[in-house]
Design a protein that fits this description.
By secondary structure, this protein is α/β, with parallel strands linked by helices. The chain folds into 2 domains: about 10-165, Thiamin diphosphate (ThDP)-binding fold, Pyr/PP domains (Rossmann fold), CATH 3.40.50; about 180-315, Rossmann fold (3-Layer(aba) Sandwich), CATH 3.40.50.920. Helices cover about 35% and strands about 20% of the residues. The chain has 13 helices and 12 strands. The chain has helices at about 10-20, 35-40, 40-45, 60-70, 80-85, 90-95, 125-130, 145-150, 205-215, 235-245, 260-270, 290-295, 300-315; strands spanning about 25-30, 50-55, 75-80, 105, 135-140, 160-165, 185-190, 195-200, 220-225, 230, 245-255, 275-280. Strands 2-1-3-4-6-5-10 form a 7-stranded mixed β-sheet, sandwiched between helices. The chain has a 5-stranded mixed β-sheet with strand order 7-9-8-11-12, with helices on both faces. Strand 11 (about 245-255), helix 11 and strand 12 (about 275-280) form a beta-alpha-beta unit. The longest helix has 13 residues, at about 60-70. The chain is globular, with a radius of gyration of 19 Å. It starts with 9 loop residues before the first helix and ends with a helix.
Length: about 325
Amino acid sequence: MSAPSAGGASRDGYGSALLKLSSDPRVVVLEADLGKSTKSCLFRAEFPERTVSLGIAEQNMMLVAAGMASSGKIPFASTFAIFTERAFEQVRNGIARPGLPVHICGSHGGIHTGTDGSSAQSIEDLAIYRTIPGLTVITPSDDISAEELTIQLLEHGSASYTRTARNKTPRMYDEESVKELKIGKGSVLRDGDDLAIIACGVMVSEAMEAASTLAGSGIDACVIDMHTIKPLDTELLDDIRMKCGGIVTAEDHSVIGGLGSAVAEYMSSVGGFPVQMVGVEDRFGESGSSSDLMESLGLTRDEIVKRARGLVNSR
């Protein structure tokens, strides 16, 4: 894996993917008054006749998408992550229960939104959507992986929820390495035998920096971009159990129900394994700059390093 480079926000990758999918006439795009922010506006500008703007009516958007999917279309519906939560019942009963291939994108997920404040910071969305049977849950780490994973949804065949971020993050992939990505399969960004750092979304770049710091003190950590939270790549987790002595998970999400919980649930089912979770504790966020909030809530490379060293020293 090449060194991380400057990139864009994962929401940018979502927007560019919609344009690349436009050659398929089945693709339609739905918005809830936030196309400029989610980047679905790029598709709307080129294909207004295949874009439906529902206004601030997220529940309605999900059911319109369900109706279109039942008629042979492949809808991509987006709004802020926090506003998708208004439509949980419609996603559950209107989309997932009948098994319709509607692809939902929740932008501005996590506390990375900073100054928008706690009311707009969705730190529970991954947990909520993990509970819905058959729903795929994805959270890309950068713009180029968001584009690739969104493109793959065209032939996915079942409903999905993808979380994207507003802020730019370092690019973890290039045009060649991104071709190896596959929904449902974690991506090993760095090899190591002492422990594994499993991260998703904006925390993947923090995990890579933490691994570099750990290497300086003789701790060899592998880093995994677990971009698909559900279905979880349990084969990769089995490899980690055989190879490493512990796991640190890192996510811009509550420690309740997200990536860390998913990993711990699986590990407990196969006999137990040391897992430390870096994420938001049982609290809401607050208003502030992204960097200040990440520091305040412990969503940093330093916290990952601390947890990793604790795991190694406890053995």
